Amino acid sequence: MRRATGHLRGLLLDWLLVPDAPLPPLRMTDVQRSVADELDRIAPLIDELGRRFRDAGHELALVGGPVRDAMLGRQHNDLDFATSARPEQTERLVAGWAEAVWDVGRAFGTIGCRKGEWQVEITTYRSESYDPTSRKPDVDFGDSLAGDLGRRDFTVNAMAVMVPDRRFEDPYGGVVDLAHRLLRTPGRPEDSFSDDPLRMMRAARFAAQLGFSVDPAVVAAMTAMADRIEIISAERVRDELVKLVCAPFPRLGLTLLVETGLADRVLPELPALALERDEHHRHKDVYEHTLIVLDQAIELEGRLPGGGPDFVSRFAALMHDVGKPRTRKFLGDGTVTFHHHDVVGAKMTRKRMKALRFSNDETDAVCQLVEQHLRFHGYGSGEWTDSAVRRYVRDAGDQLERLHVLTRADCTTRNRRKAERLRRTYDELEERIAKLSEEEELASMRPDLDGNQIMAALEIGPGREVGEAYKFLLDLRMDRGPLGEDAAREALLEWWAARSGTSRASG
Ligand code: ATP
Ligand code: MG
After folding, report:
1. Pocket of ligand 1, candidates 62, 71, 72, 80: which has the most ligand atoms within 8 Å of its Cβ, to mutate?
2. 3-class SS shares of the chain: helix, strand, coil, % to 5
3. pLDDT for residue 335 is more than 90
4. Hey, how many other C-beta atoms are within 10 angstroms of the C-beta on 45?
5. Considering only the top CATH level, what class is 4-178?
6. Is-contact 294 319, C-beta < 8 A?
7. From atom 17 of ligand 1, which residue's Cα is the shortest distance away?
8. What 3-state DSSP class applies to 265?
9. Largest Cα–Cα separation, the chain
10. Cβ(325) to ligand 1 under 6 A?
11. Does ligand 1 have an atom closer than 6 angstroms to the CB of 221?
12. Could you tell me if the CB of 10 is within 6 A of ligand 1?
């Protein structure tokens, strides 16, 4: 308890010093209530599975993400467990119970299974000692839950609930850290990151996902050991980066990457922006502008078909100006230009996304947005011709909605009137796009029967009546949408009969 209060005091101080901290500390009573609720919700699963393992003489514990998230009031149907059983024993124990069982990674001790709505992964305890001289691909299995928890990345991920008796295990004070929304490593951060440098990326990812701050000792170790990230595969770094960018608080994670120097290794284009003043010579640099554009792009995600979080849209916001440092030119009159920073930026973005092993589709989409982010600025006060508007739409292709988001988000002027003017001009461009595409759809609309079919149906040859019939069917199509050939023929014959009737009556 002494540690907890000491800790608490330190944290409240940090709290005052960290103006960016997005969320207030949690109350312990709320944490307890959330866990109790979640354990009750998942009771049917944990009671049954826990008894199966206990009856066979093994320990089973809910661990990591699900325990942490239960405390935060977030519910999961994907549940991770740790066990004293070896993978073969786990497999046998779940075989008669689950509806499907699979091998997630036997060498690492993980068996997966599904039962009803529950998706479960059960991993054999890892050993507490780590031998850096051993280069064995297999992990060493361990015998104690405490040892297993000690090998985990952060204290908030190193908590467990034994099942079926629901004993709470928290050897590293994770619950106190969670209440104060703090990421700390169970042991010395240097040892932890030396075991697995990916954990440095995970610190930034969890900061962004959970809105947590990071213990100063962890930040110091990340700063000192940033270059160690280079031994980690590009794919694993990319996966953490994607999670970070798609999280609720990407700014927290990105700031941490930049401040520790990790970004210099994994996304050097981002810190490079910090050297730049923006094009208006304000004190706001391009780096800060970029983070604001990202925040604004996130706010506009509701306009996208999926509703967000949208990685492509967010990453394009992050990369849209990366060509600026290389294209900057100071003119004699004190102004500065960034000619072709869109094209240069798109090239740089492609190179980075290739290095991070992104798919071609994602890379193409992001690069296209970076390359087109300035196009709208040629629109001025609306003097584009219809064909220029069509070209804008055609070039944007599938990315049109995201281009709308990026272009709107890219306005960070503090001049309210100017911002409002840009917004209205873009509204107007979107209205023109909508109107043109509607008109063009109408222009290309055809009735349900063509001229030959009309002549066949009415048993007439070419002449004025065919044109009238065509117009009748086109009007019908506009009024009622597509009818199909049979219904159109029927309507046509009715119209023809009525028309002959009136012409006879009047004639
Ligand atoms: P989510 O799945 O919601 O992203 P999570 O906490 O479950 O979050 P995972 O990456 O699925 O994260 O990992 C599951 C658990 O395994 C973590 O909570 C942590 O305890 C442990 N873990 C995962 N990766 C590492 C690592 N590189 N080093 C140490 N522990 C790890
Ligand atoms: Mg998980």
Report:
1. 80
2. 60, 10, 30
3. no
4. 18
5. alpha beta
6. no
7. 64
8. helix
9. 108
10. no
11. no
12. no
Tell whether ligand 1 has an atom less than 6 A from the beta carbon of residue 198: yes
Number of residues assigned to the chain: 507
Taking the domains of the chain in order of start, what are their residue ranges? 4-178, 181-267, 278-444, 451-502
Instruction: Specify burial of residue 465 (Cβ count, 10 A radius: 0-12, 13-18, 19+).
Output: middle
Residue 228's CB: how many other CB atoms inside 10 A? 18
pLDDT at 284 (0 to 100): 52
Note whether 181-267 and 278-444 share their fold. Answer: no
Cα–chain center distance at 102 = 28
Q: Which of 36, 109, 120 is nearest to 71 (CA)?
A: 36
Task: Look at residue 452 and tell me whether its pLDDT is greater than 60.
Answer: yes
- pLDDT tens, residue by residue, 52-109: 999 999 999 999 999 999 999 999 899 999 999 999 999 999 998 999 999 998 888 9
Tokens read off for 445: 């609309």
Of 144, 209, 149, 162, the C-alpha closest to 183 is: 209
C-beta atoms surrounding 422 within 10 Å = 19
Using the mean position of ligand 1's atoms as its centre, give its distance from the Cα of residue 153 in Å.
Answer: 7
Q: Are 277 and 328 in contact (CB under 8 A)?
A: no
Assigned token pair, 58: 């093994």
Q: Which ligand is nearest to the CA of 157?
A: 1
Q: Using CA atoms, how far apart are residues 231 and 152, in angstroms rounded to an integer?
A: 19
**Percentage with pLDDT > 70 across the chain:** 90
Bridge partners (DSSP) listed for residue 31: none
**What residue type is 109 in one-letter code?**
G
User: For residue 280, what pLDDT is reported?
Assistant: 57
Sign of CA dihedral 151, 152, 153, 154: negative
Whether the CB of 157 sits within 6 Å of ligand 1: yes
Q: Does the domain formed by 278-444 have CATH 1.10.3210?
A: yes
Mean pLDDT, residues 193-200: 97
Q: Considering only residues 125 and 380, tell me which one the structure prediction assigns the higher pLDDT.
A: 125
The whole-number pLDDT of residue 308 equals 86
Q: What is the mean pLDDT of the chain?
A: 90
Which top CATH class is 181-267? mainly alpha
